[in-house]
Amino acid sequence: xxxxxxxxxxxxxxxxxxxxxxxxxxxxxxxxxxxxxxxxxxxxxxxxxxxxxxxxxxxxxxxxxxxxxxxxxxxxxxxxxxxxxxxxxxxxxxxxxxxxxxxxxxxxxxxxxxxxxxxxxxxxxxxxxxxxxxxxxxxxxxxxxxxxxxxxx
Length: 153
Hints:
The protein is mostly helical and 153 residues long. The protein has one domain (2-151). Helix content is 71%, strand content 0%.
């Protein structure tokens, strides 16, 4: 039973990792390629917009990963309703562990595997956002004269 859970769960974890790497890479790359915001009216919105876009893209990537796990749970016959599968998946992915819905014994180990996966993927999102924020802080300290292409991505 344990081996079967790993044989099913590890490929999904690798899929989520590949998705997260692509989303994080694109988000940082998108931010770096944006031109420096000019001075004047609405400067704040022009400076923050690339960060907001990157955050939304990473959040969307997280929701897609939750849906992948939920789809797996439906495919395994653990849930008949997609809503319940997504809810259970989101609780696992975020490591909330409510325990109000429990999978059957043969697939119960997939819950902790998804939780480990979620912690890693959310940590990767946090790291990518931190890199963007550090670059924004550096630009603010230097008077906004820093070219985003110097961010190293």
